[in-house]
Amino acid sequence: MEPDPEILELPLSLIVPWEDQPRRGPKGDYALVESIRALGVLEPLIVYRDGEVYRLVAGERRYWAAREAGLERVPVRVVPKPDPGTLHQMALAENLTRAPLDAFETVEAVLKHAFLNFGHTEESFLELLRRTRTDHEGARRRRTHLDPLRHEGLKALREILRGFPIAPLTFVVKYAHLFRLPPEVRRALAGAGLSLQEALELVRDPAKLERIREWMGRLERGEVFTPLSPGEHLWRVARNVARYRPKPPRPRGPLGQLQGIVERLERLYEKAPEGWAPRLREALDSLTSILEEEGELEDGYEAPEDDGGDEEGGEG
Predict the structure, then answer these.
(1) What residues does each domain of the chain span?
(2) pTM surpassing 0.90?
(3) Which fold has domain 7-81?
(4) Above 60 in pLDDT, residue 295?
């Protein structure tokens, strides 16, 4: 089989990743690194020439995996330099077909896409979201709904979100809340791997947002010793803060003692020999039903997880 004349092999040292890449998360992918170490890069990277270097258009995960695997040269396909809007669209298409973006990567990518390809400033895009949400809430009060094919806001958002796995109304009702966070926080947490529900915790709970901002300041001032980069350490802190749930206060008296027994039995159940499991489960179900019947737990008992350390995972 003859080689494709459009595909070249270039030294990795000549390829420069794109600084506006929508995906900001960790670069490592162990499975991909091992595959490339064994078989090489099977799908060429897409690049364009920029003076003495080649700038990456698509294939960032393969690029970083090839570097980690120790490759010196990789196959590439050289294309003409795209305009910024097309470049962003190509990078989005590459990322969205590989793995979903996290919540903050998503809102930042949508905002950038709206600017490059539809001429929206952040202010005009947020105004579009506000108008559409106001109309949606008015329609709900009238017990009707907006027509997605006729409502101007939803039509505009459908065009902007084309290619994103998000319905326009979902973006208006849920994702738009993330724009209430300061822009520097949104950008810093893009790549942290937070789901939409976890990201919304920072909107709902001002104390959690303040905790994140406090850590941003400490990391910026170099007050935290960490083997990670400051950005990766902040992402780890953000995941712990967003996912943290305080243990509910234990009731006093016999019910409090009973709840303590249930918690200990839950931990024992996870580690007990297989033969014990049926009897322990039966005991747990009986004790839990007593707690529920007494009205101490509104939604049924769930044993709190073992913390295993402090809330932010330490400073070292």
Answers:
(1) 7-81, 100-180, 188-246, 253-293
(2) no
(3) 3.90.1530
(4) no
